[in-house]
C-alpha cells in the first residue's frame, strides 16, 4: 500500500532529516504475524535441509570420506579403534564401525602430542547415542552423519531467518548456500573421523549469525556472544579455519552494541573527528572485548598445534613446492643457504625416505624457517604465478583422489568417488580451462562489490551488512588460498584446498544476496512514497492525510527478519 505524505508538513520535514536507517526501520519493523510466518517457513526450510543431507548421505547406500590416518588423532581419544583395521584398505573404502580399545602414550595423538579439536565433541556425541541406533561396536560414524545433518538443518533455518531479503529471495539464496554444503566435495566429511565435519557445521552457523548481527542498526549483545561462540568452535575445529576470523571481526565491530539494561545506545554528545571516534569506540566496547577474545583464542590455538607441523611445512615448501617447479633448483638451494646436493631430495616428503633420514637433515632444520621462505618469494614474485595456478587447479579438484567414498563389499571399486550432488563441483570443473578469468573475477569482484554495497547509505542496515559479509568472506577465502600455498604447498594440495573450495562455493550464494540488495535498492521503498529522497516518489497535495503501510502487507517488503 502506497503512503502519501504532503509537502511542507511536519511529517515530510522529519522524514527529510531522518537517516536511511531510520526510514527503513520505521517501515520494515516486522509485525507479529510476519515474524511468525518467517519462523514457520524457516522451520520447514531447516527440516528440508536436514532431510536433503540425510538423503544424499544414505539413500542408495552410505557414502563418506575414508580416513588418511588423521582421524586416528581424534578417535583414539575416545578409546576406540577401527573394526577389523587393515592399513592396506584404509584409504580405499570408508569404515563406519569402531570398537572399544584402550590407547596409551604416543600411540594416541599427533606425533606424540595431544591433538585438540572441537570435532571431538561431535564424535563423543555420536559414540554416546550409537547404542540407541542399534549399531554394533562402540561408535558408528553413520550416527555422526545424522547428528551433522540435523545441525546443518538447524543452521540453515537460522540462516533463512537472518537474511535481510524478501521471503522468496531468502529461499533462493538459502538454497544456493545450502547447495555448497550438500555437494559431494563437502557433505562426505559428515561420515568421517576427520575434523572437517565440525569445521563445516561451524561455518554454516557462523554465516547465519553474521547475517543476524548486521540486520539491525544496533547489534544485540546476545547475537554477538553467539557469533563469537560459533566462531571459536569453528576455529578450534582445525588450524586451517583460522582465516574465518578475517570475515567475522568486521561484522563484530560493524554496529554499536545495545546492552540489556539500556533503552538506547549511549554515546557522548558533540562533534569533531576525535570525539566522533571516541563515541564510535565507546558504543562498541562489548564488541571490541569479544573481538579481542576471538583473536587471542585463535592465536593460542595456532600456537598450540604440534611443533612438527611447522617443520613439515618448511620441508614440503622447499622439496615439494619450490624445487620441483623451479627452473634453477640448485641456485635456489644456495640462496636459501643450503648445499646444492640437496637437490637429489626433490619431491620427497618429511616422513619419506629423503633428507629426513640423512645426517644433513639437521642443517636443513636449523637453516630454513618461514621468514626465510617469505623473503625468497619476495625476491622472486614471478614464482607466485605458477604457485597460484597450481593452487587453483587443486581447489577445483577439492578432494583427495586417494580417499574412497564407499564402504567395502558394496560393488564399488577401491577409491571410488561419490557424485550424487556435484552441482557446484561440476561447474568448477567446467570452468577449469578459464580458471584465471573466473576465480580471480569471483574473488576480487566480490570484494569490490561488497565494499561498494557496504558504503551505500541509502540501503537498509541489513542490505549494507550483506556487502560487509560478502567482502569479508572473499578476503577470508583468498587468505585461506595463500595460507595453504605458503605452508604445505603442493603436498596433498587437493585435500588442503578444501576450505578454499568451500569458501568459493559459498561466495556464489552471497553474491546472489548482494545482487538482490542492489535490485531492491533501485526500487521505491514500500510505504515511503512521497518521502523526499526516495526513488519513484510523487509529492502529494498539501493537507492530504498520510497513509501508513498495511500491517498485513508489511511482510512483503524487505523485512529484517525475525
Please specify the SSE layout and strand pairing.
Layout: H1 10-17, H2 20-28, H3 32-58, H4 72-75, E1 80-82, E2 97-100, H5 119-129, E3 139-140, H6 141-162, H7 167-182, H8 184-187, H9 196-214, E4 219-220, H10 221-235, H11 245-252, E5 257-258, H12 273-282, H13 285-304, H14 307-322, H15 329-335, H16 361-367, H17 370-379, H18 383-397, H19 423-430, H20 435-454, H21 461-485, H22 493-496, H23 498-521, H24 551-554
Parallel strand pairs: 4-5
Antiparallel strand pairs: 1-2, 2-3
Helix pairs in contact: 3-6, 3-7, 5-6, 6-7, 6-9, 7-23, 9-10, 9-21, 10-13, 11-21, 18-21, 20-21, 20-23, 21-23
Structure at a glance:
Residues 1-24, 529-562 are annotated as: Disordered. The chain crosses the membrane at residues 41-59, 141-161, 197-214, 243-261, 281-303, 436-455, 467-486, 498-518. With 562 residues, the chain is an all-alpha fold.
Amino acid at each position: 500500500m502506497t503512503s502519501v505524505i504532503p509537502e511542507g508538513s511536519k511529517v515530510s520535514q522529519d522524514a527529510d532529516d531522518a537517516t536511511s536507517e531510520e526510514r527503513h526501520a520505521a517501515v520494515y519493523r516486522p509485525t507479529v504475524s510476519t515474524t511468525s510466518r518467517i519462523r514457520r517457513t524457516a522451520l520447514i526450510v531447516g527440516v528440508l535441509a536436514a532431510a536433503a543431507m540425510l538423503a544424499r548421505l544414505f539413500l542408495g547406500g552410505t557414502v563418506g570420506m575414508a580416513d588418511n590416518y588423521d582421524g586416528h588423532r581424534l578417535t583414539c581419544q575416545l578409546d576406540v579403534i577401527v573394526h577389523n583395521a587393515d592399513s592396506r584398505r584404509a584409504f580405499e573404502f570408508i569404515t563406519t564401525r569402531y570398537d572399544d580399545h584402550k590407547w596409551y602414550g604416543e600411540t594416541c595423538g599427533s606425533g606424540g602430542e595431544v591433538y585438540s579439536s572441537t570435532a571431538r565433541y561431535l564424535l563423543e556425541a555420536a559414540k554416546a547415542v550409537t547404542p540407541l541406533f542399534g549399531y554394533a561396536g562402540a561408535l558408528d560414524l553413520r550416527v555422526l552423519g545424522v547428528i551433522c545433518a540435523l545441525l546443518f538443518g538447524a543452521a540453515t533455518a537460522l540462516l533463512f531467518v537472518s537474511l535481510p531479503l524478501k521471503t522468496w529471495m531468502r529461499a533462493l539464496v538459502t538454497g544456493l548456500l545450502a547447495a555448497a554444503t550438500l555437494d559431494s566435495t563437502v557433505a562426505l566429511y559428515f561420515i568421517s573421523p576427520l575434523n572437517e565435519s565440525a569445521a563445516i557445521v561451524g561455518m554454516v552457523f557462523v554465516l547465519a549469525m553474521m547475517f543476524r548481527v548486521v540486520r539491525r542498526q544496533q547489534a544485540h549483545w546476545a547475537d554477538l556472544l553467539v557469533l563469537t561462540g560459533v566462531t571459536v568452535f569453528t576455529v578450534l575445529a582445525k588450524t586451517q579455519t583460522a582465516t574465518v576470523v578475517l570475515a567475522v571481526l568486521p561484522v563484530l565491530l560493524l554496529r554499536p552494541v545495545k546492552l540489556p539494561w539500556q533503552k538506547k545506545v549511549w554515546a557522548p554528545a558533540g562533534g569533531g573527528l576525535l570525539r566522533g571516534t571516541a563515541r564510535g569506540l565507546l558504543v562498541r566496547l562489548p564488541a571490541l572485548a569479544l573481538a579481542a577474545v576471538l583473536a587471542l583464542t585463535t592465536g593460542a590455538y595456532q600456537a598450540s598445534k604440534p611443533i612438527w607441523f611447522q617443520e613439515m611445512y618448511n620441508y614440503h615448501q622447499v622439496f615439494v613446492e619450490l624445487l620441483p617447479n623451479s627452473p634453477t633448483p640448485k641456485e635456489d638451494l644456495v640462496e636459501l643457504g643450503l648445499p646444492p646436493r640437496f637437490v637429489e631430495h626433490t619431491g620427497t616428503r618429511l616422513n619419506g625416505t629423503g633428507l629426513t633420514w640423512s645426517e644433513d637433515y639437521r642443517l636443513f632444520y636449523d637453516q630454513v624457517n618461514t621468514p626465510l621462505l617469505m623473503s625468497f618469494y619476495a625476491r622472486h614474485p614471478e614464482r607466485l604465478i605458477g604457485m597460484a595456478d597450481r593452487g587453483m587447479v587443486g581447489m577445483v579438484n577439492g578432494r583427495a583422489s586417494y580417499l574412497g567414498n564407499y564402504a567395502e563389499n558394496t560393488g564399488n571399486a577401491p577409491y571410488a568417488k561419490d557424485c550424487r550432488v556435484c552441482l557446484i563441483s561440476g561447474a568448477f570443473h567446467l570452468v577449469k580451462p578459464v580458471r584465471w578469468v573466473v576465480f580471480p573475477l569471483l574473488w576480487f569482484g566480490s570484494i569490490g562489490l561488497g565494499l561498494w554495497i557496504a558504503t551505500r547509505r541509502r540501503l537498509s542496515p541489513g542490505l549494507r551488512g550483506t556487502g560487509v559479509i560478502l567482502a569479508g568472506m572473499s578476503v577470508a577465502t583468498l587468505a585461506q588460498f595463500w595460507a595453504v600455498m605458503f605452508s604445505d604447498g603442493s603436498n596433498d594440495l587437493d585435500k588442503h584446498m578444501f576450505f578454499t573450495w568451500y569458501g568459493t562455493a559459498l561466495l556464489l550464494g552471497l553474491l546472489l544476496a548482494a545482487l538482490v540488495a542492489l535490485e531492491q535498492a533501485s526500487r521505491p521503498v514500500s510505504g515511503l512514497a512521497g518521502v523526499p529522497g526516495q526513488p519513484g516518489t510523487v509529492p502529494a497535495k498539501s493537507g492530504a492525510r498520510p497513509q501508513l503501510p498495511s500491517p498485513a502487507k508489511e511482510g512483503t517488503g524487505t523485512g529484517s527478519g525475525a
